[in-house]
Write a structure and sequence with these properties.
330 residues; alpha+beta; NADH Oxidase; 4-stranded antiparallel β-sheet; two-stranded antiparallel sheet; 6 strands; 46% helix; 12% strand; globular; binds flavin mononucleotide
Length: 330
């Protein structure tokens, strides 16, 4: 009787009602707490806005292909606004984001001074207090660093912590071909990723066709480098693998864990990679689904662009907060 069609139809209706309620609570939490406007000025919101712009500027500083000096005026202006909010609210003047924000401005000034490029326009968008060089030497937090291909040769014999600490998102590839078996080995290893009740709902769309990858990335809008990846992996999870409304976000969890496993595998194999977001509005989402023929049951979790390391690559420092800033002991 439990499995009779009418009983299951009632159960499904109830579950859909629960799903609607839970999705509504998701929306309520997100719309109440996300930093959707620059007037959202709680501590974490101000920090997020600073870090978002610090990251944009670090990427500009790291860029060697197609760099236009004087870049980033929008990010600089937004950073200035976020630093003002942080200062007005009296948040910690030694805090991680504050130091990152002030130091990225210094790195910007240094780079342009090194190239003798005029940045007088900054006086119109950055407050004098933020432009003045911070006194302490330890204001070197944000900026760039160099990754050498040579350092990656021993990756297969590094211990796990060395490997994890040495990984960086690499966006500028050498353009040399890569061995697809290495990518396959990374995927094979990533099958060991845990998933809810071992359901392994992930799917991977593998694109070696650079023209196709270029079209996908044009809709993704977060890559923007002339050298396209040798392999573009699109990671999705099928909602067919879930049984209950409380699992509605599980695809992003399982797919995210899986993607991280793949990234460590790629690093182990000595391949360069950058994770790319799938935060897509409807039109881009539909275009990518159509380009890759993605099944409608699947959520697109993220992309991984994979290529070969150049001899040297400049990358953002992407400094990290220490555990004591985010661990809450109860
Ligand atoms: C889910 C996800 C989406 C990302 N999306 C992008 C992206 O669209 N473009 C990009 O250049 N980097 C993207 N990144 C890379 C992050 O900027 C990078 O991982 C972060 O700054 C930390 O730097 P690291 O990976 O070098 O340690 C993404 C990372 C993740 C995890």
């Amino acid at each position: 009787m439990k499995y009779s069609r009418p009983k299951q139809a009632v159960k499904k209706m109830l579950q859909k009602g629960r799903l609607r309620y839970l999705a509504h609570t998701d929306i309520a939490r997100f719309s109440r707490y996300a930093a959707l406007s620059s007037f959202d000025d709680d501590y974490e919101q101000a920090v997020a806005r600073i870090m978002y712009n610090v990251h944009a500027l670090e990427k500009g500083l790291a860029r060697t292909a197609d760099r236009r000096l004087g870049f980033g005026s929008k990010a600089l202006s937004n950073l200035n606004g976020a630093l003002r909010v942080y200062r007005r609210k009296g948040y910690d003047p030694a805090g991680f984001a504050w130091v990152e924000g002030l130091s990225v401005i210094q790195r910007y000034l240094e780079l342009h001074a090194d190239h003798g490029h005029d940045v007088s326009f900054l006086a119109g968008i950055i407050d004098p207090e933020f432009l003045a060089p911070p006194a302490a030497d330890d204001f070197r937090a944000a900026g760039t660093k160099v990754i050498s291909r040579g350092d990656k040769l021993a990756n297969a014999s590094k211990n796990f912590y060395e490997l994890a600490q040495g990984r960086s998102a690499v966006r500028e590839f050498s353009g040399e071909p890569i061995d697809p078996d290495k990518v396959l080995r990374a995927l094979d290893n990533a099958t060991k990723t845990p998933s809810v009740c071992n359901r392994q709902g992930w799917r991977v769309y593998w694109t070696e066709d650079k023209a196709l990858a270029g079209q996908v990335l044009a809709h993704q809008r977060g890559f923007g480098y002339p050298e396209l990846p040798e392999v573009l992996l699109t990671i999705t999870v099928s909602n067919n693998t879930f049984l209950s409304p409380v699992e509605r976000n599980q695809g992003f969890v399982d797919g995210g864990l899986f993607a991280m496993s793949v990234m460590y595998g790629l690093e182990h194999e000595g391949l360069a990679a950058v994770p790319l977001n799938a935060c897509l509005y409807d039109r881009a989402q539909r275009a990518i689904r159509s380009l890759l023929d993605i099944d409608p049951s699947e959520v697109i979790v993220m992309f991984l662009a994979v290529g070969a390391f150049a001899d040297e690559t400049v990358v953002p420092v992407s400094d990290r907060r220490s555990p004591e800033t985010f661990v809450r002991r109860r």
